[in-house]
Amino acid sequence: MARAELIAEFSQVLTKKKFKTLLDNAGISYNPKQLDNDEYYNTVFNELLVHFEDERLVELIVERNQQGFPLYSYHINSIDFFECDRVGEGLLLEGIENERCSPCHQISIEDYTNNDDLLSFVAKIKEYTTEYSYGINARGSLENVYYIPVELKKNDSIVSIHSGNSDIEKILSAYLKNNCLWDIDEFSLPNTINGQENQFDVSFKTALILDYIYNRLPEIGMLTDFSTLRFNVDDTNIKKIMLNGSGLFASPTACEYVTLGKEISRFDIAASYRNEPFDVRFSLTGDGFRSLKITITSKEGNLEIKKEALFQLQNVYIELCLNGVSLIEATRNIITRIKETYLNGEKQMYSKEVVDIIGNNIRMMEQIIPRLNQDEYEFLASIFENEAQIIEMSSVVNDGTLNVSIASVREMLNLDPV
Prior knowledge:
The chain is α+β, with helices and mostly antiparallel strands. It has helices at residues 3-13, 16-26, 38-49, 54-62, 166-178, 204-219, 252-259, 303-323, 328-344, 352-368, 377-393, 401-412; strands spanning 69-76, 99-102, 105-114, 118-128, 142-153, 158-161, 184-186, 222-234, 237-242, 263-273, 276-285, 291-296. It is built from twelve helices and twelve strands. Strands 1, 2, 3, 4, 5, 6, 7, 8, 9, 10, 11 and 12 form a twelve-stranded antiparallel beta sheet that branches. Strand 8 and strand 9 (237-242) form a beta hairpin. Helix 1 packs parallel to helix 4 (54-62), helix 10 (352-368) packs antiparallel against helix 11 (377-393) and helix 10 packs across helix 12 (401-412).
């Protein structure tokens, strides 16, 4: 692709926010108020282009902003390798540039800093649609560029990998283990610890999560409650429960799954820390789905408080992994309340007429979504999730085409399948 074509494509995908960031990073002075003036914009834009070779333009065209603040947590068993120039065949982090890390990925290390307490860097990972090749010949198949911040707290032996993409995180953590010889293990919820698993008559994993949300986080001043829960009902069936701000105890269905020993596979919480509200998503990953990926999903508000909250969530999670349930009796009381909610609550039963109306609404959504803008999806998705849940909770048997429409709407709205 000729440079003129690259520049034209770059200008099409460049947002004003990204433009300002690139100008700041390049040290180019500009007047933000004049960027709406086409002549001034083009002058500054051409000045910026001088800083970018063709390959960097290709990267800028395909790279995407990371959503929210994601975090994977690892324990590093030894940091002795810092005392050596090289360990075995392991690579030094400094100087790694466009090294192959999978058949379709290459890695570079940027912004490397290392002091007595902290090592940090950004792993830049390029993803190609076809098998990796070097240099200019590969750029036509470049599909994405990821920037993954990594921190190693030496005194605590904790490694934090901030990746929103689970596949990329696996590639990076494998590279650190196999190529850089980092002896790391992902923190995970224990299967057994000091006989605690025998103290509860629900899934021990669920008991740990309940202790985390209702006991441990409030102790550090973080107010939380569940907003969404997903349960592994059986080997092939995952049920999503929308709590609509009411919390776990307002949902007989969620309490039913906990009581019957169904394991939580993913959950969202609404939280507040230092008077700053935010939403957090927890995804269970790794062997046995016992490791938590923690993501603060919104970037609005006070970002410094959100970043502090993220590491507080991590610290409390690590304590949970190492020591299990903190308050056994309090957690038992929570489980008793859950069981009572299930036993005393009646599952909502909706008439066929109500289900038919909701089914027609969903079929109408299927028709109008292609005519909507992307920024209208979030509002519609909230309505859809509530109506789909009513269909799920109803005992009315539909004709099968409604399930097809529900799946279609989920796909169009970029929602996870249930």
